[in-house]
Automatic annotation (TrEMBL):
Residues in Cytochrome c domain copies: 30-133
Highest taxon above the source species: Bacteria
Keywords for this protein: Heme, Iron, Metal-binding, Signal
A molecular function GO annotation: heme binding
Region described as Disordered: 132-164
Signal peptide extent: 1-20
Presence of keyword Transmembrane helix: no
Gene3D superfamilies xrefs: Cytochrome c-like domain
Protein name according to UniProt: Cytochrome c
Species for this entry: Caulobacter segnis (strain ATCC 21756 / DSM 7131 / JCM 7823 / NBRC 15250 / LMG 17158 / TK0059)
Length: 164
């Protein structure tokens, strides 16, 4: 009889144990559709498509992900949202997956979010972006801390309220 409570206790402990990390997986009818969905829900266009936020997301799809010449200025320097349509032309699919897994270029890009994607979803993003074809000019190079941009920029420098 002492065996049954022991088995129940072991089962309870096993049920409460942390599970191995498995990246979330989005699936769909095709990699292209999955990639398009991930771009939309991941907010990629918010930074990588000029005017996307200000026009309420109505930018035509053929203008998506061409990078943005408006910089993000902060303590890290100035970063620019990459022209992803040009980027995928210069990387193999495996290089793209590796970049999304290991890169930490700078704010405001949410690198921890891209690292959390499954490899299949990273590949779907690559295939979708590549399906759009190359478009748009290169974006300006990143600037080091203290350098002033000559392009428009959003100032993301933290400002404390007076008296703090």
């Amino acid at each position: 009889m002492k065996f049954i409570p022991l088995v129940l206790a072991a089962g309870l402990v096993a049920a409460c144990a942390p599970q191995a990390h498995t990246p979330a997986q989005v699936t769909g009818p095709s990699d292209i559709e999955v990639g398009r969905y991930l771009v939309k829900v991941g907010g990629c266009n918010d930074c990588h498509t000029p005017g996307f936020v200000s026009d309420g997301g109505k930018t035509p799809e053929d203008q998506w992900l061409v990078g943005n010449p408006v910089g993000f200025y902060g303590p890290w320097g100035v970063t620019y949202a990459a022209n992803l349509r040009q980027t995928v032309q210069t990387l193999s699919e495996n290089e793209w997956v590796g970049m999304l897994q290991t890169r930490a270029y700078g704010p405001p890009m949410p690198w921890p979010s891209t690292q959390a994607l499954s490899d299949d979803n990273k590949r779907a993003l690559y295939r979708y972006i590549r399906s759009l074809g190359p478009a748009g000019p290169p974006v300006p190079e990143r600037l080091a801390p203290g350098e002033k941009p000559t392009t428009p920029y959003l100032d993301m420098t933290p400002v404390l309220p007076k008296g703090e």
